[in-house]
Amino acid sequence: MGLEMKVKRAVLKEIACKYQRSSKKGKGQVLEGLLGLIAITAVMVAGYCATVVGKW
Question: What pTM was estimated for this model as a whole?
């Protein structure tokens, strides 16, 4: 479940580089993409927790 820490760091490093190179409009798009990634992760965690509680 989820990403390994090395993968998370690599993804965040790439997003940070992309954010720094972007214009103001581009920075907004990068942040929207990051929020989407966070939302997907939150849904995955919630689904996992519901599965674990259901088995308990």
Answer: 0.62
